[in-house]
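$ fold --in a.seq
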Amino acid sequence: MNQFRVLVFIYTIGSTILLTPSGLSSMVKQDAWISAVVGVGLGVGLAYFYSSLAMLYPDKSFTEFSEIILGKWLGKLVSMSFLFFCFIGATTVLYHTGDFLITQLYPETPLVMINIIIAIVIIYGILQGLEVMLRAAEIFLPWIILLFFFMLFTTSPQIELVNIQPVLESGPKSIFQASILYASIAALPCIVFFMIIPHIEDKEKLRKTFISSIILGGIVVIIVVLLCTLVLGPNTAARSMFPSYVLARKINIGDFLQRIEVVVAILWFITIYYKILFYYFSFVTGVAQLMKLKEYRPIVIPLTGVLVVYSLVVYPNNAFAAEWDLYGWVPFAIFNGFLIPMLLYIVAKIRMKVQKRKTIEISKSEDF
């Protein structure tokens, strides 16, 4: 269960730490951190709901219990929607990662080469199996925490409190809308864990672990969003494509230790890698279950080719990517991450209630 806690923590941070500060700042300016706080609250609610749904069929994955609840054909249709969500999530995060690298670090390198290199590392991780991936996450965790606190302490001297004033200027409606954006990036993608929960042994602690990890990961993102606003200012944070990286550039200790943003960026590389990894792991294992394959490994490499190719065309340009992330991704994530699971939960509860009533009636008839 500790490995699951670490995984949810890292996955929640994921691409959120890279993309959310800009999106929230563009929507609500200096109130971005408040939207992040509200978004964490929404994430806690989702974690509670996801754990409730998972405990109805604790030994079944999403693709498996969808067919149990809705029947063979409708269940497969829902599973295909879930798998499409996982695939799109993996390709978009892979695109953003490659775009970040060629924009900030390797401007002369083609995007396709960057994405292929990342994909090779993803293939290696998935082929090693779930246990290895989870143990590796435990090894990376201390470094993530260390680099986060290093960035926190080295940028905090440049904080300007005036940058978050006036507070609540955007209004409750705009703040809540921005919080939904946060939840769509950090919390709704946690639906992928339905493919992992069946492998967890101590499921009694699932809800508590899920919620605590969402909160801890959310705290990290809230602090980063707040730092971006306090140090860079809301306008700069909104204009920057990757404001948290711009924030790391501000590190300057005695005019001696500076320009070390690449070292701090290791924090993002690890968390984003795990986000892509488990998006894709859920997609591959789900496809294998849908096709009734005994093993998912034979299809990893062929499907990775599709992943890389689609990551190159999923966004025509950065302007389209920004528009999609703000206005297209949110309803897409809500539909797959909330509405479909809610449908499954309601139908499952109704079926269980009907089945229980039938069992009681049969037992009564046998008594007579």
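$ fold --in b.seq
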Amino acid sequence: MWLIRALSQNMIKYNGVVVSKNYKHGVGGGTGYPLVDAGMRQLNETRYMHNRVRMVTASFLVKHLLVDWRLGEAYFATKLLDYDLSANNGNWQWAAGTGCDSAPYFRIFNPITQFKKKDPALVYTKEWVRDLDESTYLAPIVDHKYARERCLNTYKFTLR
């Protein structure tokens, strides 16, 4: 219930970043980053997503968009056919750099590099991002370099 209340109140978190706007773009597959969009569109359509893409999308939501990991975990919990409470919760904490066995907070997946490395022939991405080659495909909603620096600064500030 807190998730719905937070989003309906246009919850603001992390130095003025409007979470609900970023959250809606992220989970809707409208980020302008092809691998992230492909993963979220696949999840929304089939209720499944490959593990590598789960890591990339989770990292993108929590680190590029500064969405609280609990929002992403709750969304995936409602969507995944293979949902498992402990695995989902632990994976989101790992992606966010929190929890008992997490990736360091400064590990931020580059969605462009991941896209080029993991789907160089565009087989997966074109299956889910059908408008990839069209002029109507979205521009990135946030610049990677800017988002990375903002995330690092936010985490460093929080750890003081």
